[in-house]
Amino acid sequence: MSNPGVQTVSSAADRVKVGLAIAVFIGGLVSFYVLGAQPMIARVGVILLGIVVAVAIAWTSEPGRRFVGFAQDSYNEVRRVVWPSRKETIQMTGIVFAFVAVMAVFLWLTDKLIEWLLYGLLLGWT
Fold it and tell me: Which GO terms describe its biological process (predicted)?
């Protein structure tokens, strides 16, 4: 069974671009360790350069453009979220803590009841 909602890289050029972007990214990471004797600023610069070049290469492919579109849609969706106020957040946190405390007492009482039934009545242990 194939999932029709899954989109894969379709053209050979896009496959090459995505593969090249992954290779450049990995190359930047490897260069960080290869340049171990160099100053830290140069090593970090190589990683950042690798990331920037990999993103630029990936951006020119169809999957890269789809990802940018997805990221923009996600950002717009987060902006539309109605976030709770400070008062609502504190109230909900208090409710959660109260529920946890009640459940802890309930489970402790249940444990003690089962312990008393099992060891006290059934087995006769003290």
Answer: intracellular protein transmembrane transport; protein secretion; protein targeting; protein transport by the Sec complex
Cα separation, 84 vs 93, whole angstroms? 12
Radius of gyration from C-alpha coordinates of the chain? 29
Whether pTM exceeds 0.70 = no
Alpha-carbon span 85 to 93, nearest angstrom: 12
Residue 118: CB atoms within 10 A of its CB come to 11
Distance between CA atoms of residues 73 and 66, nearest Å? 10
Sequence letter at residue 10: S
pLDDT per residue as tens digits for the range 61-91: 888 888 889 999 999 999 999 999 999 999 9
Size (the chain), residues: 126
